[in-house]
Amino acid sequence: MSNITRTIDRTLLAWRDAPRRKPLVVRGARQVGKSTAVQIFANRAFDSFVTINFERRRDYRGVFEADLDPKRILAELEIKARATIKAGSTLLFFDEIQDCPAAIASLRYFHEEMPELHVIAAGSLLEFALEEVGMPVGRVEFAWLYPLSFSEYLNASGRGALAEQMPTYDVEHGVTFSLTEVMVQEMYKALHEYMIVGGMPEAVVTYLATGSFAQSDDVLDQIATSFLDDIHKYARGDKQIANVGLVLTRLFQFVGREVTYSTLGEADLGQRTATSVSLLEKAMLCHRVRSASPASLPLAGSAADKHFKCILLDIGLARRMAGLESTALLRGSDLMAAYDGRAAEQFVGQNLLAEGLAAGSEGRQLFCWIRPQKSAKAEVDYLLARHGQVLPIEVKSGSTGRMRSLRVLMDEFANVKQGVCLKQINAPLQQKGIVELPLFTRL
Q: Which among 310, 335, 353 is positioned nearest to 397, based on CA atoms?
């Protein structure tokens, strides 16, 4: 992991140097590399690094029981950890902080009484702990970590020069594209790997070390098992636990389709399945892409909780949880048609969330457009808020496709001046307000 540069590195460095810094909470699903990213950052940016892991050392929890006085807490932690914690030169890291709710509450007082001390917290299933304990609003700040994005994968696999040439699209400045034909082919070769391996750090490291998709699949299977084993930590009752597991293993089949609870949960109760989706979203194992109106911003103002699609945490993990082999991707040249186009839409959504510059849309949410008129069905995969404009994104499997839904949207909503279609093509094409871009283009 030490050779993997993550997008969050820039965020952490800016946080370290900020004059009005607050304790930082790193949020993300299990096994996306939170602890490793913090450790690598600390080794590069601080004289010393002290980790307080509440899962490994249960005795640390007792330090926070008497009161939340940061000076006393710090003195006792130094004794227990056998380390010196010095403001300005030490990074204090509360790992697995969900196992010590009082430590979450203490972040407020570290901010108010010891603002010069650099404190970072992270944990597994942290969203549930924050919901129970309450957020120290205004006293902490947040950074988000997802599986490796495609550009991070390029860097990790020794293709940093290629990552620097990744094409971008901006509603104000248009397309930046400088790839040669050789570069395009290398980009698709790397994308081929990424669509199989995904971005879970351990799977990436395993594949890059061995060159074996089978071995990276073994790692993904182990991660999937650990996620299934975790369900009892946040779901209650045997039927709900079973339903969460069913939903998690079936969700990849619904990528690109509007989710209906009765179908997703098979014969189970719709309400139980709805609860499962909510729980999985809090665990950050899936992300709801809610239908919104392109008529105006903010998109969240018109987003519908009952009409949505889903993507999962990671494309490689999703494939393995659905029990799908990599054969369709290994043998096929049309990568975007794999698994009936689900892989393409998953890839785009996952990278919209993971790319630090794009950060999804509004408040790290993703939106789509599902036309309400059932008699004239139309769907556009993603709606983004960019520079005060609504930017619709359609993902087309293969290199062909008429973009009918995208044109319907632009005809119905006069405020939408531009649209993007991501396809398996080698160079940008422009036609009637719609720009067609290679699938790996950064938005």
A: 335
